[in-house]
Amino acid sequence: MIGNNWLWNMVNNIPFLRGFIMKKVYTMRSDMIDSPPTYENEHPYITLDANYNVSFYTRTLPPVPVECPTPMGVAGKKILPDVDVLVNKLFIREKFKPEPIGTSALFSFFAQHFTHQFFKTDIKRGPQYQWGGHGVDMTHVYGKNKHDENLLRSFKDGKLKVQTVNGEEWPPLSKDAQVEMKYIMPVPEDSKYALGHSFFGNLPGLFMYASIWMREHNRVCDVMKKEHPEWDDERLYQTGKLILLGRQQIVIEDYVQHLSNYNFKLLFDPSLLFGEPFQYQNRIALEFNHLYHWHPLMPDDFTIGGVNYTMKDFLVNPKLVIKHGMATFVDSLSKQNAGAFTVRNHGKYTLNVVKELIKHGRTLRLQPLNNYRKRFNLKPFKSFEELTGNKWLAKELENFYGDIEAVEFYVGLITEKRRPKAVFGEAIVEMGGPYSVKGLMANPICSPKYWKPSTFGGSVGFDIVNTATIEKLFCQNIKEDCPVVSFKVPG
Ligand code: MNH
Q1: Whose CA, among 18, 255, 285, 466, lies 20 to 30 Å from 307?
Q2: How crowded is residue 414: how many other Cβ atoms within 10 Å of its Cβ?
């Protein structure tokens, strides 16, 4: 935005103005999302399944009808480009491109960790199915169902099971809490940990976040026990979950602030919506999942406590976090540059993921990017050059698609020119914004009956929620001096 510093200073520092603008952000963004949901993946018209079949992702735009003349509707070629050729031309990383506004790898792992609680494709059933709860429900910390939750709980003072290694607390080994974990390659028994999400043993950055939220839960339980000595294990556990969800909502303020890089200082305050017409219900959309495939944000290697590791060393190796310790690990990720979200910047371990993604988009007949631009009140692009701002890329895309109206959703998102000063192009922000705001604010804890101190164990608990930052989350759970905790590489 413009360099009117005094204006932003005023807006950001006058609570009434800041609240007024934030309320507009909430209502304008969430009004873009149909609620109750309208479409699902199997019909190009409204069905009751769209609302009642919660194992489906919802769809913002219905699938392209099968009787259409081309796969993208009416425009473009009869046959879409070969996925391998497309990926070899537009996605493979040859030389690492760092994220231009200095985003850190701590941010990349936050994105992955946070969104895996609600992007859960049930791939055995098909790409239209999901196994999650359609929102910010903390299942990535506590487990996907009551059975798993019980395995992860210690049943003492509300706390989760832990083990102590090198004087720090970590999640238990799988043998001590037998929740099902899924690894992308074989792992030795003594490197298998029990975590809330089955994927999180695959990467140290995810294991780090899993461990910090586990410590935070147990810390919060100690505070609550002091406040309410009469509370039993169950009440401490349940209240801990609510407080952690609240804390995570507030930490998202830091995250979205970085991602949008707005001059306006964002605010998480559910009470701004009280009295407004607003549906406290949410459904995760297929398009939201697709646009959140941010694999280019992962670098190829990491320097942790001065030691260099390749992505290959990182994979299925959560022990690295324990070896270096929490403080060193978070400090190092904060100082490590993320990759740029752009063409030719997918590291080799994620190429298959993007190939599958494009194939799913075709199976489910996602409409072309320009239709989504219209749906989200953006001007459709008129030319490949207007989309990409790059002659070479425009030419390549033209060869692949023939017509700007036929560019596939994800391919369009990643080839779109980046907004000045921001991490992403316009379409990702203008689509991701509404989905995120709706998803966050539609959470039950934001509704008038929940959003009050008693839900969170009284004013002490409510304060823990309201004063959260990403830095505090780490530093309150690390015994040493506070390390660097930042979504932006310092300096
Ligand atoms: Mn990622 C799905 C690997 C980083 C967002 N990712 C997948 C899948 C694999 C995968 C494999 C396929 C589904 C599965 O097995 O659960 N991802 C990686 C690897 C890295 C990675 C190896 C790091 C290196 N992923 C990231 C980052 C983000 C991200 C960073 C940023 C938000 N990934 C996703 C999303 C999905 C996904 C979203 C879709 C999940 C789903 O639909 O179930």
Answers
A1: 255
A2: 24
